[in-house]
Amino acid sequence: DSGVTQTPKHLITATGQRVTLRCSPRSGDLSVYWYQQSLDQGLQFLIQYYNGEERAKGNILERFSAQQFPDLHSELNLSSLELGDSALYFCASSVGPRQGTDTQYFGPGTRLTVL
Amino acid sequence: AQTVTQSQPEMSVQEAETVTLSCTYDTSESDYYLFWYKQPPSRQMILVIRQEAYKQQNATENRFSVNFQKAAKSFSLKISDSQLGDAAMYFCAYGGGATNKLIFGTGTLLAVQP
Question: What's residue B100's pLDDT?
């Protein structure tokens, strides 16, 4: 158990809908990262927050947004969902702000299925 | 740009034997870290081992060890005394100090035969 929690574990929804994925980092970690893992595209970095502020952006679509709250939990909002958004969404956390060098600990993931 | 290459999409090992997974990377940075993550069928991403580029000593974690060849830009993972629970997808990752990015390879699927 990494100490990172994600809810829900599974989510099934329809095209065009909007969903929210939630992540709580490990105790003491200030950074939260969101990743998307599709079958054919590997692990793609979406966005990083550090202590409430956006720190780095990756391949995040405009239909997706995220935020980190004062208690450090984070939410990833996915809207106008398409079939291609079906994937495993991971949250990870680290102590510091350095994405490249601070060890990231991953949550169990949320499996999103868009029908 | 930094790249990470795992040239073995799949590998197989007999239980109790040793297996080595390959990873090469390309970078012009001097400050970076390298990681191996394991993703078993449960899909949880689990940190296996981490290596700081400035350290010459190879990192070890129980049955897992790395062979870090900085000049060759190679970072292989050796699993000794393989167990059935080692069956998983293994991802090599490069973490840049200056670029501040974590870049994953495409993974190697390891099967452990009883």
Answer: 77
